[in-house]
């Protein structure tokens, strides 16, 4: 959490690795995940690097493991405990030996199964042919003796007849029969019989047909095109009996197939135990060799040199990892790390945990923080859920969201939730702590609004008093049954009666007008405070990068412009709330008219002033705001120009920081010496910043009115849903009404979840995201950096 407010200090370092221990050292660094390696061979092709042979061998092993994975049929899930990177030659030999054994056994099993299938098919062909040709009468002229699909054709008595038998897939029977009929010109009799037991080979047949035809050569030329398997058919009955007995003996001799399958099961058990570990080990080996390809050799080619980005606080751990790697490899010379100076901007490193990762991802979606600039994530932990809750304030809806997020938090270690393939669900699960806080803050603002599923509560009694209006007018309170509460004329002195079971504003006819005024002013106040806080966070950037001139020439004019105009507007809102009460509320002037007259340097006689001397005060504030604009526009460019022309006694100091385009750095220090900075470029960027800030103060203040709009929209939509759906279930207060209430409540629950929780929640989330990105972070945050991507075997190194 120490680096959450600002990115950690990162330095550029060199690693000197002995050739014998380089593999072990990189492996140890990958287990700890501390460094980001830089490619020192950017112009060298991937096929010309030093360890390209080892990388190809790893890819071949990955291909072999993928084939084994398909044979074993294991689910491709995450392994529980990742193994250590293995010794390359031992793992390669052992894995290739077991993979070769698995391939040989699988091939032998496939060959034996194919041979057994062919023998069984041949046996079925002989049996069906024996039945087809062993009748005393001529079966070719009697269709009842053959298959129901046989076609009776008259055959001349002196015509020689041949018999050919085989197997064909049932789907090809009809086309095959038509082609034979045409090829043989009708001189054939075909009979197709279904095989009594199906074959296991999906690529071959499941039916056993037999056919008699003349001439046979024509059929033999047609069979290959239909993938027919033709078997020799002996003409004599004795030869067929001898062939069938031989087939029976050969089938019995293939009992070795069972032993082969048993041995294959043993090999698959070995592969099942070792394959997940091997896959991870080979992936680690490949990653290590890819990193070694990014290193360069010294002139003696006995030492590898690597350049890395390393957090300064982890330099001791890096040295310890190198020491451990040298010890494991048996090298007598230890590898070491050396920090080197650089003028490049280092990557950004912000360590997070499971709670802060969701908020940091929101900030990183806008842009990764520049090196060591202020990180908005810790402040967004409070402001983001609060701004969301202002637009989503309802006790019931917030409670449902809170319970849903709490369920995800309590089951965050469940593999079924973490390893889901649904991308939308994973998005919700990664932001479970963010949703938890949004639900909790929505419950709080719901109590402030006194809304629970659009209905008012009486947990806190109303502090509204109508005594002033009653004592100074002829109105009294009348709340008779079956009538809306209203003020009616009554003699002075009669006490006001009010039912404490109802909230005052939920039944008032002007409650929408009151909430409009209240939430609009609340949105303006919160927006100006939020923007002012963002401007003040720029102080920490200026102080950290020692840009003291920007405190006076930029921060001070920005605060004067913001507070003189919009800070004064907040003062008018609170002053009007404090000064005027119900007794003199009709005399209260309009703040909007006063604010318009302030810019026009005029006064309106119809709109009374709020306090004495209001016009001169407003004139002075507008003059101060206008005077701060040229200071903000010309202050920094003139200061840098004068500093560039001033004589220097020493070399210019160059600090690391982030760039905001061009020479002027808003999030960090300058990237180059002032002697190389173009004054026109500085002035152009400062002019853009000045225009953006001045116009942004106006537009951003108006943008915060979305808090008011979405809050009212959510409340009105909740009320419409209750009135149009849920209230219909309370029409009949009897048993029939109880039965009707069940589907009505189901519809109300579904619409509440789908419209108010999902759609309205997503809308409020997007608007809160925009307010943080544009209105808040734009005041101090640059987001022009890039993340530190360490070389690691673990997926969540910094979390």
From TrEMBL:
It comes from the Eukaryota. Essential component of the vacuolar proton pump (V-ATPase), a multimeric enzyme that catalyzes the translocation of protons across the membranes. Required for assembly and activity of the V-ATPase. The chain crosses the membrane at residues 386-410, 431-450, 522-540, 560-578, 617-640, 733-759. Keywords: Hydrogen ion transport, Ion transport, Membrane, Transmembrane, Transmembrane helix, Transport. It is found in: Membrane. One of its GO terms (molecular function) is ATPase binding. One of its GO terms (biological process) is vacuolar acidification. This is V-type proton ATPase subunit a. The keyword Cell division does not apply. Belongs to the V-ATPase 116 kDa subunit family. The keyword Coiled coil does not apply. It is a multi-pass membrane protein. Its main location: membrane. One of its GO terms (cellular component) is vacuolar proton-transporting V-type ATPase, V0 domain.
């Amino acid at each position: 959490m120490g680096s959450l407010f600002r990115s950690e200090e990162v330095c550029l370092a060199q690693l000197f690795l002995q050739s014998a221990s380089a593999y072990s050292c990189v492996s140890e660094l990958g287990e700890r995940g501390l460094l980001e390696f830089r490619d020192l061979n950017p112009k060298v092709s991937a096929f010309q690097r030093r360890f390209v042979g080892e990388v190809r061998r790893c890819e071949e092993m990955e291909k072999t493991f993928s084939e084994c994975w398909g044979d074993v049929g294991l689910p491709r899930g995450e392994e529980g405990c990742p193994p250590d990177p293995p010794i390359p030659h031992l793992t390669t030999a052992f894995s290739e030996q077991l993979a070769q054994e698995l391939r040989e056994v699988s091939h032998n099993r496939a060959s034996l199964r194919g041979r057994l299938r062919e023998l069984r098919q041949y046996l079925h062909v002989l049996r069906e042919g024996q039945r087809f040709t062993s009748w005393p009468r001529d079966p070719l002229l009697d269709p009842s003796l053959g298959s129901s699909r046989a076609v009776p054709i008259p055959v001349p008595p002196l015509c020689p007849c041949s018999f050919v038998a085989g197997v064909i897939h049932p789907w090809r029977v009809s086309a095959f029969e038509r082609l034979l009929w045409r090829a043989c010109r009708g001189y054939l009799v075909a009979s197709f019989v279904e095989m009594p037991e199906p074959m296991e080979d999906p690529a071959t047949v499941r039916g056993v047909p037999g056919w008699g035809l003349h001439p046979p050569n024509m059929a033999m030329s047609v069979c290959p095109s239909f993938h027919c398997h033709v078997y020799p058919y002996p003409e004599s009955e004795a030869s067929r009996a001898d062939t069938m007995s031989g087939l029976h003996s050969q089938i019995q001799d293939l009992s070795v197939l069972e032993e082969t399958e048993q041995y294959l099961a043993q090999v698959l058990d070995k592969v099942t135990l070792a394959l997940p570990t091997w896959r991870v080990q080979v992936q680690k080996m490949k990653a290590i060799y890819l990193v070694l390809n990014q290193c360069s050799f010294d002139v003696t080619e006995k030492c590898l040199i690597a350049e890395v980005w390393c957090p300064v606080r982890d330099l001791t751990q890096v040295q310890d990892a190198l020491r451990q790697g040298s010890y494991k490899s048996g090298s007598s010379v230890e590898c070491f790390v050396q920090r080197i100076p650089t003028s490049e901007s280092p990557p950004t490193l912000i360590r997070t945990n499971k709670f802060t990762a969701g908020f940091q991802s929101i900030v990183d979606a806008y842009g990764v923080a520049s090196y060591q600039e202020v990180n908005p994530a810790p402040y967004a932990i409070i402001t983001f859920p609060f701004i969301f809750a202002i637009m989503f304030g309802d006790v019931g809806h917030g409670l449902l969201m809170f319970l849903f997020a709490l369920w995800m938090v309590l089951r965050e270690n469940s593999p079924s939730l973490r390893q889901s393939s649904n991308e939308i669900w994973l998005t919700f699960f990664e932001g479970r702590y963010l949703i938890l806080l949004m639900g909790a803050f929505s419950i709080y603002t719901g109590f402030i609004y006194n809304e629970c599923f659009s209905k008012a509560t009486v947990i806190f009694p109303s502090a509204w008093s109508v005594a002033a209006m009653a004592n100074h007018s002829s109105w009294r309170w009348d709340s008779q049954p079956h009538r809306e509460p209203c003020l009616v004329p009554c003699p002075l002195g009669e006490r006001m009666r009010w039912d404490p079971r109802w909230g005052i504003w939920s039944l008032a006819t002007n409650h929408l007008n009151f909430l409009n005024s209240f939430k609009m002013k609340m949105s303006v106040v919160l927006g100006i405070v939020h923007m002012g806080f963002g401007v003040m966070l720029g102080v920490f950037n200026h102080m950290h990068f020692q840009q003291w001139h920007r405190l006076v020439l930029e921060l001070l004019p920005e605060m004067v412009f913001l507070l003189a105009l919009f800070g004064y507007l907040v003062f008018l809102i609170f002053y009007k709330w404090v000064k005027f009460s119900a007794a003199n509320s009709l005399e209260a002037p309009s703040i909007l008219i006063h604010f318009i007259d302030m810019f026009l340097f005029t006064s309106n006689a119809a709109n009374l002033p709020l306090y004495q001397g209001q016009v001169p005060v407003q004139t002075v504030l507008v003059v101060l705001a206008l005077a701060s604009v040229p200071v903000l526009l010309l202050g920094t460019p003139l200061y840098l120009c004068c500093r560039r022309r001033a004589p220097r006694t020493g070399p210019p100091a160059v600090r690391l920081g982030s760039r905001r385009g061009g020479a002027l750095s808003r999030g960090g220090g300058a990237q180059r010496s002032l002697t190389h900075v173009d004054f026109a470029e500085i002035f152009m960027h400062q002019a853009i910043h000045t225009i953006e800030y001045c116009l942004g103060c106006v537009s951003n203040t108006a943008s915060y009115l979305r808090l008011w709009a979405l809050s009212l929209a959510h409340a009105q939509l909740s009320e419409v849903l209750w009135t149009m759906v849920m209230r219909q279930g309370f029409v009949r207060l009897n048993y029939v009404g109880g039965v009707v209430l069940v589907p009505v409540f189901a519809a109300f629950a579904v619409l509440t979840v789908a419209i108010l929780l999902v759609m309205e929640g997503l809308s409020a989330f997007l608007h809160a995201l925009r307010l943080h990105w544009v209105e808040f972070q734009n005041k101090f945050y640059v987001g022009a950096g890039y993340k530190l991507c360490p070389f690691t075997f673990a997926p969540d190194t910094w979390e």
